[in-house]
Structure formats: C-alpha cells, structure tokens
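Course assignment 3, question 2. Fill in each field.
Student: A.L.
Task: Predict the tertiary structure for the chain below.
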Amino acid sequence: MANINLRLETPADHYEVENLTREAFWHTHRDLTHQICDEHLLVHRLRKSHAYVPELNYVAELDGKLVGHIIYSKSKIVEDSGKSHEMLTFGPISVLPEYQNMGIGKALMTHTFEIAKQLGYRAVIIFGHPNYYPRVGFRPAIELGITTSDGGGSDAFLAYPLFEGALDGICGKYYIDSVFEDLTQEDTLEFDKQFPTKVKHTHVSIDVLLERLKPSAKEAIRKLKFEILALMQTMSEKEVLDLNGVDEEDLRVIKEVLAENCLPW
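Answer field:
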C-alpha cells in the first residue's frame, strides 16, 4: 500500500467519484423496490447539501488511479431538553470492488478522523456493518447513551468518539440530514443515464441459504422474513447466533453461502 495517496476531492473528480461509488455499490443494494443502487446520486446531492463538510471529502489514489472515496456530512444528537450537539457521519464510503480488502477504506477513515478531530468535531456516528466497523474502533452508540431518532438502537448503529471523553454527558436521539431520505428510484434512474450502461443486479433468493441449513436454523431464518440473501449481510454474527435454533455450524454455513454468492460478510 506504499503507493496510496489520500487527497481532497476536486471538482474535476466529481464524475469519476460518482462512477466509482456506483461500481462499489452496484451489487449491494437490498431494497426490492429498487432496480439499482442510489449511492452515486447521494454523493452528488451531498456536495450541494448544507450539511456537507468539504474539508473531509477525500479520495484515495493507488498508482495514480482513483480507487476510493469518503464523504462526510453534519449530523446531531438532540437531548430530551432540546439541546443539540453537532456530530459527523460519513457515507457513502466507496472502494472499487477489485481494490477492496486492501486497507483503502480504513486508510480513508483514519486519515479523515484525525482531520475531523483537528476541526473540532466530537464524534463520528454511522449505520454500518457491526462485524467490520468495531475493528476500526467504533462502539455501539446505545452503550454511550445515544439512540436512533425513533428511540431505538441496533448492533449496526455505531459511534466513534474522536477523543477521550468526547461524548461524556451527552445523550439523546441521533438525526442525520434529510438528503439521505429524499432519494427516489425515479430520480436515481434518471441520474444514472449519464453513466456507462450496466446490467441491472439480480438478487439471490434467501432459499439458496435455507436449503443448506438444518431445520431449526432454517425456521429461525424464515422468521426474519428476508426474501433475498443480501439481507443477511445486515446482521452481526452475534445477532445471528442469538436466533433460537442457530449455532456455530449454521453460522459457518451462512458465511460460506454468502461468500459463494459474492456477498462477503
């Protein structure tokens, strides 16, 4: 990874970054009502959002090729009293598929975390995979007294304090900018016309997994009412093992089936 270069995104990078994001997420969207992913449109709109943080909009180059990108926006924790505390969220974070698992995403995060700290931000809060992000230092937000906007929490709701005690005495509900909620598939399909034509992703049925599991685990997974295999990626190993009827051998099978279908856990 000696040749990796991290730098601020420039206007000249915009189209390439959006196409990179499209490539990174093309096979990962899990909404059955969507034909294609919308992360590249989200990047496009985030740059125009009042929540956008341009000082943290970084790209990664490897041997001169643009291979990764991270973008940040402002978010907030609101206490019951109404007092608000400004925070950060990042996303999408994108790495070209052929360059994934090489530490590029981690490099983008650690580099920008340090800059965010220097800029005076307290913490980064995300919805991310609970098996991966704790390896970088994220913790369940609920442990720190922070809930989602509806008062809930999950293993995928994670926080990264940027310095010791950054979230001490702060608790409440977490809110991200509305730009994340205003993405329609109609808008995405129109926006996508400016990029090279791609074959639309076909979801793999959950039945591919069910036929490999023993009866008790099969019943436990059925109760989740997942129609597609990719939704298994949204769960942590702990959440799966907590299902009644699922054991370590079933977990091994789930990982195996996900990997066989290009859906790494």
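Instructor remarks: The first helix runs from residue 14 to 25. The chain has a mean pLDDT of 94.
Grade: pending
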